[in-house]
Amino acid sequence: MKTMKISEAVVRRLPVYLRFLNELSKKNVQTVSSQDLGQKLDLNPAQIRKDLAYFGEFGKKGIGYDVDYLIEKIRQILKLDKIIPVALVGAGNLGRALCNYNAYLKDNMKIIAVFDSHGSKIGDTINNLKVKPTGEMKAIIQEQKVRIGIITVPAAEAQHVANQFVEAGVEAILNFAPMIIKVPAEVRVHHADFTTELQSLAYYLD
Amino acid sequence: MKTMKISEAVVRRLPVYLRFLNELSKKNVQTVSSQDLGQKLDLNPAQIRKDLAYFGEFGKKGIGYDVDYLIEKIRQILKLDKIIPVALVGAGNLGRALCNYNAYLKDNMKIIAVFDSHGSKIGDTINNLKVKPTGEMKAIIQEQKVRIGIITVPAAEAQHVANQFVEAGVEAILNFAPMIIKVPAEVRVHHADFTTELQSLAYYLD
DNA sequence: TAGATTGTTAATCGATTAACAATC
DNA sequence: TAGATTGTTAATCGATTAACAATC
């Protein structure tokens, strides 16, 4: 099963499971069934079992899933069992907001460098990180083995930043700019676009 | 066709079309084909034609789509042809960042009120908006006919804010807190969760 | 007219859900 | 043992893509 291709929909649900399991763990809940999970997360229990079964047999028939064991397994699947260094470009309001999530990301992902191309921002300190000029991006990314890049610059600069990330060897990009960026197929891009999100929400108004 | 139920996937693509069409319009491009659109947006042309055809016959055979006409139509479909008042709760970094997008949202959606429950934030001015105490939420939301609510408070407070939104009569919620919130079925909720986004991205690292 | 491109039907593909034997 | 719940197969459902007649 290890070689089977996993659908994007499945991968997107794993972090949702993980978050809820973490809450259960904090409350010292030992065991959870797909039934329970489905109820809380508004998902079909069969779907949850199937999602997990792609990666192994994590449950016990008649019992359910051990919460802490399942957390460990999902963290492994998502590669969150070791620190992933992240860099962010664009020290505007959104960039600052995301840097301050650093604490929230716990021990797995860490924004370890922040860049901006505008002199006025360079040298600022955000959450203990000094904003550096984009000219230093490549060197720092390679030196610190940054694997994920976050783009929070204006739309017009997004593609340029993406190019720099790719050249520096970043493996995946989370793009907050309202602009589709083109990268080589081996680099994974996710879009997190606040405006499209809001606009599609408007559709559902009466 | 007006009564047919449109899938969520279709609705999520419409704002993406809209954004690209706006760029074309700015460049004075008059006409675009599904071929062109598909190329730029990494989508199948047949899918684009089908998406649009759910709502009417907007194109001309042999020619393509008139850019400005299509913009107008998509704006109507998404109900962006009139101003939609939006309120935001949580004047932290993320909330501030989103308020500053106000300009970007052009004339269709407008964050017209910002609330926070912490005394230290109340009275601050963000992008010409004064942060008000959450106690005033209901009155202001009803008075100003706010239709969409944005939640940018910590996870622990998200459900409480959602309840207040629902009670005040908000029709849809965009939730940035990393927490699933429960609302009555008639209220639409979208989750825009930065951490799950980043975590699913990690899966694709080698 | 010839070339291009839509709108739409039919075919394909993939994801979700139901059902149930296995088993704790 | 009886009850509960998994892992997995089969059935269903829905979304994407291909193909093409209509027509600008």
How helix-rich are the residues of chain A, as a percent range? 40-55%
| Strand composition percent of chain A | 15-25%
What is the CATH C-level name of the largest domain in chain A? Alpha Beta
State the separation between the terminal residues of chain A, measured CA to CA.
45 Å
CATH topology of the largest domain in chain A: Rossmann fold
Structural class of chain A: alpha/beta
The geometry of chain A reads as: globular
Evaluate the radius of gyration of chain A: 19 Å
Count the E strands of chain A: 10
Explain what the structure shows.
Two copies of one chain form a homodimer. The first copy, chain A, has 206 residues and is of the alpha/beta class. Chain A folds into two domains: 8-77, Arc Repressor Mutant, subunit A, CATH 1.10.10.10; 84-197, NAD(P)-binding Rossmann-like Domain (Rossmann fold, 3-Layer(aba) Sandwich). Chain A has helices at 8-26, 34-41, 45-53, 67-77, 93-99, 137-143, 155-168, 194-203, and strands spanning 31-32, 59-60, 64-66, 84-89, 109-116, 125-126, 129-133, 148-151, 172-175, 188-191. A seven-stranded mixed beta sheet of chain A has the order 6-7-5-4-8-9-10. Chain A has a three-stranded antiparallel beta sheet with strand order 1-3-2. Chain A is globular and about 60 Å long. At the A-B interface, helix 1, helix 5 and helix 8 of A face helix 1, helix 5 and helix 8 of B. Chain A binds a DNA duplex (24 and 24 nucleotides) through helix 3 and strand 2.
